[in-house]
Every structure is written in structure tokens, then in C-alpha cells.
Amino acid sequence: MRRTGSETRREIIQNAMQLFTLKGYNHTSINDLLAATNLTKGGLYGHFKSKEEIWNASYAGAVDLWKGIVFRGVHEIDDPLERIQRVIEQDLRDYVGGRVFTGGCFFFNLLVELSGQAPEMSGQILRGFDAFSTLLAKWLTEARERSMVADGVNPREVADFLVVALNGATAIFSARMEPEILEGTIRQLRRHIDDLRICPC
To answer: pLDDT per residue over 132-155, tens digit each?
Structure first.
């Protein structure tokens, strides 16, 4: 059965996301992509002009996949601190621990590889991390405005800390594949968030 153009493009992106996460951008060759998709060079280049263009589409696909997992049901939660906790749990337990990508985390792996080598690509990943931190800071600001945390709490500083902690747990888990690394991080970050909360009693 012949694939449609959109199905072929989607298959290229799905295979590229896995290959880039596992082997890295520089060590993934066009031949690797051809072998994974059973396409000819002409078939591949009929959809993408270059490997960098495939990477850009893969990055967008990885973002959509991550958002679908990490933000599932989150916007229905009224309490902004519980929103943050749900995001932490779903990021570590379902995205990282669910081994969505064979080689670990698409974003973390490629940021480490591409920093200093490909500033446009690594910059794109960093902007994604910044956007995530900005969203967490927005929720923390909401919590402060609702008198759920003390006025002295710095939303951006806390948000940046959370993103750094998530990435640190991701790195160690990718190396050891021990679920307790993720569960321990979830417990400690929940404790940290609970410590920020002003008791209503």
C-alpha cells in the first residue's frame, strides 16, 4: 500500500526524532534516515531539502509530542502550584520515564551536542527551555497574586531552578535508567513547592 505524501513526511520526522536523540545530529547520516524510512535519496529530498530542515521539523514534532504528554489535563487545574506539580510529574514520569525517545530526551541530548557547534539549533532549544521557565514563572506569579505564596518569592528564580532540576534528573536517569531517580526528584520538588505555599489555616 502506497503512502501519501503527508504520511511519508510524518514517517521521516518520527524516525529522525528517534535517530537524532539516539545518535545525535552530527552522527545521524542521510543513509541512516534512508534505511529507517526505506526511501531513496530522491524520495527523501522530495520532502526536505537538507538534514537541517529535517532537524527543524523534528524539533517541532518533538515539542508537540512533549506538550501533549507534559500538559495533559494541566489547564483544568485551578491551583497554579498543583499545575506546576502535575507538569513536573508528567515530564519526569511519563515523558522521560516513559522513554518516548530511545536515547533519552530529544531536547537535552541535542542541546549538549549542539552547544558551541550549531548556535541556531542550540539557541532554538534554549528558547524552548526559556519559554517553559516563563510559563512556570507566570503560574508562580499567579500563586503570589492569589496570596498562595509569600510576596518575597521570586517566580523566575524558582521557575529556572525547577527547569534545571528537571534537566539534571533527565541526564542522570538517561545514564542509569533507574526510576527512583525520577521518583526521588518528584518527591523533592513537591516538598520544595509545598514549602513555598502559605498555609491557609
So the answer is: 999 999 999 999 999 999 999 999
